[in-house]
Amino acid sequence: MTTWPERHQHRQQLIEAALLAADPAHGLRAALQKDGNLLQIGDATFDLTQYANVYAIGYGKASARMAQVAEEILGDALVGGVVITKHDHRLSLQKIALYEAGHPVPDAASVAATTALLEFVATTTADDLVLVLVSGGGSALLAKPAGDLTLADLQAVTQRLLACGADIHEINAVRKHLSAVKGGQLAAVLAPATTVALVLSDVLGNDLSVIASGPTSPDDATFADAIGVLERYQQWQAIPLAVQAHLTAGANGMIAETPSSGAAAFARVSHHIIGDNGLAIDAVVAAATDLGFATTVVTRMLTGEARDQAKLLLQHAAKVDRPHVLIAGGETTVTLQGNGKGGRNQEMALAAAIVLDDLQLPNCQFICLATDGTDGPTDAAGAFGDSDTVNQHDIAFTDYLANNDAYHCFKQIDGLIMTGPTGTNVNDVVMIVLY
């Protein structure tokens, strides 16, 4: 029988394996290689002597780490750039200006940083090469309200979308139609420069139009689609009147749709995925195998309500032989009903602790990790529980779950996973360890 210190060590090893594999430095160095004046990006080769300037811009929670590696690889060939990352995610850069901004809700710093980025690229020409470093979180960090909309309008809509249970595709369909840069509109600003986006994906299926709301990707969603999302989640009447007016005008053809497939803005744009959730999952499989566990990847497309998915995964765990590690990757949602604090991973771990007690499933550890190190609006990367969590603590776990207050519940029992900003962002990894 394993001891609790051994189980703690196993948890740390699995978490570290996931984060190391998802480090964007690995993917960026594989995708971006320089040999003299030749720059190899994926299967394409660029002769740097043919460009007047080489710039790097970026947005997302991993953009500072990506910018560091881009500076390292490009060296003297890089003229400069601008990247936007989340508050407290700053890293040291030499040539690229770094701005910090709000996430998951945009703030004034988001708008100011986006303005600086747009001013930087305003003079690009057909003779320039622009590398765009993209990672999850860019939807909030790269923010410029469309038309007469205000930051307050964007904030109000974002907060409602994050709380109503909508998935990332639905949320971003709305955000793209309230923005002056999302949904391919940044590509239009960069044109006619040669633009190459290097993308660390936090979207299941790697849909380029959804990652960071696709500023350099064609957008086939419409204003009518955005209205449909808000109506489907009963948010239409609750959003600001200015937003209603803007979306209605767009649906009626009074405002141009975001650039769609085939638009001239994308004539000189290419995209390369440098990493995704699959890397983290595969690393956990390898690490668990090395520790002597059998492994099962239950799903690479984990979605749905966090508490519901906890129950389904544990029902699956009850049927496997031991020792075993079950892994799931993806991104769940939380429909807020209370006024507590937490994130989807903490909520899933809290629900799992309750279910483990109900199922009487012994010797089981449930670990929920946001790979970016910040689960929801908290400083925790997630949380963990085990078969004895509920019995060992005199806490009203179900009340905390009902109030969406997993953070304060786990903080009391030292069940939060605290990594700090990780420099990466490839969705979430759930690990169920059975001894």
How many β strands by DSSP? 15
Q: Indicate the CATH architecture of the largest domain.
A: 3-Layer(aba) Sandwich
Number of spatially distinct domains:
2
Spatially, the strands of the biggest sheet line up as 6-5-4-7-8-9
What is the mean pLDDT?
97
Describe this structure in words.
The chain is of the alpha/beta class. It has 2 domains: 4-16 and 278-434, glycerate kinase, domain 1, CATH 3.40.1480; 30-276, Rossmann fold (3-Layer(aba) Sandwich), CATH 3.40.50.10180. 38% of the residues lie in helices and 21% in strands. The chain has helices at 4-21, 24-31, 63-74, 108-121, 138-141, 151-163, 168-176, 185-190, 223-232, 241-251, 277-290, 306-317, 344-359, 389-392, 397-402, 406-412; strands at residues 32-35, 38-41, 44-47, 53-59, 80-86, 96-101, 128-135, 194-200, 269-275, 294-302, 324-330, 364-370, 382-386, 416-417, 428-434. The strands form 3 sheets. Strands 6-5-4-7-8-9 form a 6-stranded parallel beta sheet. A 6-stranded mixed beta sheet has the order 10-11-15-12-13-14, sandwiched between helices.
Quick recap:
The chain has 435 residues and is α/β, with parallel strands linked by helices.
